[in-house]
Structure formats: structure tokens, C-alpha cells
Amino acid sequence: MSNAPTSNRRTFAIISHPDAGKTTLTEKLLLQGGAIHLAGEVKARGQARRARSDWMKIEQQRGISVTSSVMTFEKNGITFNLLDTPGHEDFSEDTYRTLTAVDSAIMVIDAAKGIEPQTRKLFEVCRLRSVPIITFVNKVDREGRSPFETLDEVADALALDVSPQSWPVGMGGIFEGILDFATGSVSRPEGDSKEFLGKRDPSPELPADIAEEAELARAGYPEFDLEAYRHGDLTPVFFGSALKNFGVTELIDAIARFAPPPRPQPSEAGVINPDYNEVTGFIFKVQANMDPQHRDRIAFMRMVSGTFKRGMKLTPSGLGKPIAVHSPILFFAQDREIADTAEAGDIIGIPNHGTLRVGDTLSEKNAVRFTGLPNFAPEILRRVVLKDPTKTKQLRKALDDLSEEGVIQVFYPELGGQWIVGVVGQLQLDVLVSRLEAEYKVEAALEAAPFDTARWLKGDEKVIDAFAQFNRTNLAKDRDGDPVFLARSAWDVGYQQEKNPEIAFNATKER
């Protein structure tokens, strides 16, 4: 590994199905990394018991992560940038964008439930980008399936080689700790809570059946291979319990030792390496109103190359003229500190007033454009109905803000006054209504729209204008002013494609 400053950065995400224990694992990683000092600090007391990274009102009510947060901590000379991804099935778009900004991921699996649909979906997104994955089988202190069953399911369902790095000594009621294959020691539970408090048994006497299982596991699965892992072909598997602290230290060590430092990123001009001679980065998320008192907008930038210095001028590809970045932010969930410098792999927050958007590239010379952050065709379309018609202006501002964040897409029909919002998942509609009211003081209802999906139109301007003459009732503009065909059904899309072969009806739009 090189001694360049980029090589001590590890930028990773945790992916899981809801309730697999991602929030608890996040908390314990931060605790081990010294970012927080007592387990439970991530949770507030009483009714508002929720994760520190879950700050939006609807998240507090539902106890789920809806937006992606960034948390940075340091341990043993390594800077870890942990990107928290929404685990809920309705948040594939924001989650997808977050996964474009990481170099590796931890996949959390519930020992009793195995691979669930959301885990598989998120894994496929990682596979698209060859993001290497470390697997953490959580909750082994509870009754669960055989570890062999879980390993075989990961291997078969995800077409991955699995390489177990540890083994549970019993599960559920007979759980007696975790055997670490690298050292041969067993971390033992202590006290009434049966937590891991640091007691390691260097030469344990294992029950005969466990010794046999462990031997089988080591002989029957591939040995860890760094190259295969970094190519996304093999996953090292750790067993543990985030709640009881088992396996957390091993996980941090594995990320430090195995996970790749910042990887090159695809651009229109070919891949850009971390040692490229200018500062470049891309915006993968915009978040409004993180601080309700200040109505702020923070653009999250993944640093791709160079050394950023506070006050530096960078040019956003969407704007074309340079902006000075005076107050770049490093995050610990809602806590922030000003960043004087940042290296490739770091995530910095840039306060702005709508100038930066998801998909923008920032660079010193404006010669680079990063690719691969698409918008997806919405699966649900709704009309927005204002309860107070005098608030039209506020509604337009709110919809533009929220579409800029990627919470929704907004379409302005060529005919008819009611605007249409599109989302990838149902829960985003609830988030929309909740945030309109909480942050913009706009009360609105959502009604069924006569449309089923949307397609971006690409082709010769004259051909699209001719198409528009006959299909005005189905046409809209998105917030960039690009033409969109609102289809009543999948059949409708196919029919129009057949009739208009010179026009591309695109289900994604690259930014």
C-alpha cells in the first residue's frame, strides 16, 4: 500500500434489511472508534429513543433511517468515513447514490433470518460498482439458524465465495463467545448482561461439536484472498452480536486491513485516480434543513483526488463559474466541525443556497465530469393538491428543494395546473407530506395521477416537438426543463416507442 495520504482513508457504508441491527452496529463502531464515549449516547432517553444519525421528524416517529448521514472517526492512524444508508425498502434511490460514494461496504445479516429482500437489492447495487463487501452475521447470542446454512445462503444467493473469519461458540441460550480463527482465541461473555467486556481466552477448551464445526468451516470454505475480496468476488464473514459488543473490534480491524483505500472514479474522460493533480469531487447528496433554525442546505461531496484546502475555489459542472468553499464541514451525524483540509475518500459538506445539485462534479479547472449518478424513473406518480391556494409559491420552492435532494422528482405538466411528484417507493410520499408541513409550513394532499410511470425523452429537438404536438396531455418538464413523457401504463411506453423509433424513452437520466 502506498504512503500517500489517501491510503489511510476507509470510506464505507453499512447495508442491511430493516431490523438486522445496523443502527446498533453503527453505534458500536463509533464507540470503538472513540467518536462517542458511552454506548447509548447515540440514543436519546425516553420517548425520543432513536439513533443519533436519524434526525428528521418522520424518522423519530417511525424509528427508521430515512436519509443518509456521514460519520467520521479515527483509530490507529486510519480515518474512517462511515456513510449511513437508509435501510428501508422504499429508499433505493438515495441509497444507490450513497453507495456511489463508498469504496467498500459491511453487509449485516440477522443470524435467524438470513438474506432478506432488501439486503439482496442493496447487494446488487454494490455488485454493479464492484464494491467489496465484508459480511457481519449479527445476533448470534439469540437463537438462529446454523452458521453453515447462513454461509451457504450467502454463497448461493449472492454468487459470492465466502470465507469465515470467526465462529460462534454455541448460539442463543448456549452462546459462550466467538472463536477468532486468526488468533485461536475466544472472546467470552461476562456478567448478567453476557456482554463482551474484553475477556479473551487465548487457549480455550471448545466443546467437541463446536471444535468439529470450526474445523469443517476452515477446511470447507475458501481461505481469505485479498484480491478476490477487493474485486467483489469473495466476502470475509464475521459472526457476532453488535448489541453485546461481540465481533465489533474484529470488524474495524478488517476494514482497516482489508478494505480498499479510495478507489479511482469513472469520468467522461476515463477514470480519475486519487493522485490526479487537481482537486476533484462529486455531489452525491443534498440535504436541506439539517438545522431547522437556519434553513440550511448542505451538499455532500465525495473527494476523488487532490488535497482540498479551506477557502479554495472550485467550479461546479452545473454552474460553470467558480465558488469559494469557505466553511466545509466534517460530520459526526448532527455534530459538525469546520474542515481545514480534506483528502481523496473524505466526505465534506458544503453549505450553499441551491447552487449545488446531486450529480455535480466540482473541480479546479472544470475539465472533469464524473459519471454514474442517475435519476431513476419513478414507480409511483401523484398529483399535489394544496390545501391553501395562496401558498403556491412556497409549494414550488419546497418541491424544487426536495427534488434537488433526490427525495422526490417533480414534473410540471404542459397542460393543467396541478404538479406531479414521482417517487421510487411509497414511504417517500409520507416523507414528502411530513416535510412540507414541518419545514415549509405547507399543507398538501396527494391524489392519484392518471399516469403510471415517466420516461425522459431524448432525440432531435424537431422530432420531439412534432411528437409533442400530438401528445401534449402526456408531456411534462422536469425541474431542469427536460421533456418527460408521462405514461398511463407500461404498454403505453412500448406503443409510443414502436411508433416513434427516433426518440429514446429513457428510464434513467444521467446527471
UniProtKB/TrEMBL annotation:
<dbReference type="GO" id="GO:0005525">
    <property type="term" value="F:GTP binding"/>
</dbReference>
<dbReference type="GO" id="GO:0006449">
    <property type="term" value="P:regulation of translational termination"/>
</dbReference>
<comment type="function">
    <text>Increases the formation of ribosomal termination complexes and stimulates activities of RF-1 and RF-2. It binds guanine nucleotides and has strong preference for UGA stop codons. It may interact directly with the ribosome. The stimulation of RF-1 and RF-2 is significantly reduced by GTP and GDP, but not by GMP.</text>
</comment>
<dbReference type="InterPro" id="IPR053905">
    <property type="entry name" value="EF-G-like_DII"/>
</dbReference>
<dbReference type="GO" id="GO:0016149">
    <property type="term" value="F:translation release factor activity, codon specific"/>
</dbReference>
<dbReference type="GO" id="GO:0097216">
    <property type="term" value="F:guanosine tetraphosphate binding"/>
</dbReference>
<comment type="similarity">
    <text>Belongs to the TRAFAC class translation factor GTPase superfamily. Classic translation factor GTPase family. PrfC subfamily.</text>
</comment>
<keyword id="KW-0648">Protein biosynthesis</keyword>
<feature type="binding site">
    <location>
        <begin position="16"/>
        <end position="23"/>
    </location>
    <ligand>
        <name>GTP</name>
    </ligand>
</feature>
<dbReference type="InterPro" id="IPR027417">
    <property type="entry name" value="P-loop_NTPase"/>
</dbReference>
<feature type="domain" description="Tr-type G">
    <location>
        <begin position="7"/>
        <end position="263"/>
    </location>
</feature>
<dbReference type="InterPro" id="IPR035647">
    <property type="entry name" value="EFG_III/V"/>
</dbReference>
<dbReference type="InterPro" id="IPR038467">
    <property type="entry name" value="RF3_dom_3_sf"/>
</dbReference>
<dbReference type="Pfam" id="PF00009">
    <property type="entry name" value="GTP_EFTU"/>
</dbReference>
<dbReference type="InterPro" id="IPR032090">
    <property type="entry name" value="RF3_C"/>
</dbReference>
<dbReference type="InterPro" id="IPR004548">
    <property type="entry name" value="PrfC"/>
</dbReference>
<dbReference type="GO" id="GO:0005829">
    <property type="term" value="C:cytosol"/>
</dbReference>
<feature type="binding site">
    <location>
        <begin position="138"/>
        <end position="141"/>
    </location>
    <ligand>
        <name>GTP</name>
    </ligand>
</feature>
<dbReference type="InterPro" id="IPR041732">
    <property type="entry name" value="RF3_GTP-bd"/>
</dbReference>
<dbReference type="Pfam" id="PF16658">
    <property type="entry name" value="RF3_C"/>
</dbReference>
<protein>
    <recommendedName>
        <fullName>Peptide chain release factor 3</fullName>
    </recommendedName>
</protein>
<dbReference type="GO" id="GO:0016150">
    <property type="term" value="F:translation release factor activity, codon nonspecific"/>
</dbReference>
<dbReference type="InterPro" id="IPR009000">
    <property type="entry name" value="Transl_B-barrel_sf"/>
</dbReference>
<dbReference type="GO" id="GO:0003924">
    <property type="term" value="F:GTPase activity"/>
</dbReference>
<dbReference type="InterPro" id="IPR005225">
    <property type="entry name" value="Small_GTP-bd"/>
</dbReference>
<dbReference type="InterPro" id="IPR000795">
    <property type="entry name" value="T_Tr_GTP-bd_dom"/>
</dbReference>
<keyword id="KW-0547">Nucleotide-binding</keyword>
<keyword id="KW-0963">Cytoplasm</keyword>
<dbReference type="InterPro" id="IPR031157">
    <property type="entry name" value="G_TR_CS"/>
</dbReference>
<feature type="binding site">
    <location>
        <begin position="84"/>
        <end position="88"/>
    </location>
    <ligand>
        <name>GTP</name>
    </ligand>
</feature>
<keyword id="KW-0342">GTP-binding</keyword>
<dbReference type="Pfam" id="PF22042">
    <property type="entry name" value="EF-G_D2"/>
</dbReference>
